[in-house]
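Sequence, please.
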């Protein structure tokens, strides 16, 4: 599970021999995706004072400490492993700064406007033209509200696929599912999200 792609394979082969320069290069190759994940999952109360780059700096130190154990017996692909360490770091940050006031990380997320618009357009194209009917800020709020009405399992697979940009195989590894199981869950979740959106927004028109 160590070799992810033609782009990362040369680095990861060197990482097996604990080449720190190769490890840094492999991490940098995944940095933009990890940064997007941090921005998506970081509580709004922390986002104003904690930069995603600082979070990733701490994640990299975690990676450097644990890379030996990973290369001896990788159970997931390299990016999913990195994402798991990033998730653990985010949980620690939320507990450290918010404690009992911490909200569910998977429930209140900072949805990107562009991704929200694209997802809504994909689901509602046959019934409306959301990109024209609503400004992106309102559209993002509506998609976020609809996601909050889904079950945690449905919400998470959509966040992984449409907002973090994971492949089906990567999402399957994160969730502990088979590839086919992840495909089925994603398809069902999109149908449920579309149903919520069309129920609350049947005409595609902005409502007062």
């Amino acid at each position: 599970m160590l070799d992810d792609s033609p782009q990362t394979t040369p680095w990861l082969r060197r990482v097996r021999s604990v080449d720190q320069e190769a490890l840094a290069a492999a991490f940098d190759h995944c940095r933009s995706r990890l940064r997007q994940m941090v921005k998506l999952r970081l509580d709004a109360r922390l986002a104003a004072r904690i930069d995603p780059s600082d979070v990733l700096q701490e994640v990299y130190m975690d990676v450097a400490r644990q890379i030996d154990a990973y290369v001896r017996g990788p159970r997931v692909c390299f990016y999913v492993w990195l994402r798991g360490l990033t998730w653990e770091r985010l949980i620690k940050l939320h507990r450290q700064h918010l404690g009992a006031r911490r909200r569910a990380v998977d429930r209140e997320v900072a949805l990107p406007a562009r991704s929200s618009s694209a997802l809504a357009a994909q689901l509602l194209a046959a019934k409306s033209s959301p990109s024209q009917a609503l400004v992106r800020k309102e559209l993002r709020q509506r998609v976020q509200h609809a996601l909050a009405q889904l079950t945690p399992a449905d919400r998470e697979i959509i966040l992984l696929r449409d907002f973090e940009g994971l492949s089906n195989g990567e999402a399957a590894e994160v969730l502990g599912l088979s590839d086919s199981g992840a495909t089925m869950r994603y398809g069902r979740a999109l149908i449920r999200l579309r149903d919520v959106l069309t129920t609350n927004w049947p005409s595609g028109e902005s409502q007062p």
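Confidence is low (pLDDT under 50) at residues 204-208.
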